[in-house]
Amino acid sequence: MPRAVDGVTIGLAHNRDLAAVRALIIAGLTQRWGDYRRAANPDLEAFERSYATASVIVAARDGEVVGCGILVAEAPGIARIVRMSVAAGLQRTGIGGGVLRALLERAVRLGYAEVVLETSADWQSAVSFYTRHGFTPIEQRDGDQHFRFDLARMRR
Fold first, then answer.
1. 82 - beta bridge partners?
2. CA neighbor of 54 nearest in space, from 39, 38, 74, 40
3. Residue 101 is part of which domain span?
């Protein structure tokens, strides 16, 4: 699964990458919200335990983690993408799209039928990103936009 695009390698994370993945996610949250609240992110406070059975995808350049996303089981046949992040100076360079494609390919390999995710409804760049990559908005609830991606499209 590892592949290189413009000097960035995208593939499954190794245990040695997990601290850098967590740090990248926290940096992204701080960039978006202006701070990081530990109490609001218990999964990040117990990162390795929270995502022990997840598929963690990383984008790395020169050995440094510059992008990530996590695929977790949601329900039979359904996976959820959580905690996507790209280093601030490398956003809008294609890294996020590469990580997202790798997550979807992983979901296909694992036999899922669909992938869901959510993001803040008022985070226009994120909403546009997922829509541009083929996710269908399904509902807005509690300030979040929920999306769905039918993986049958990738099996054709």
1. 70
2. 74
3. 3-155
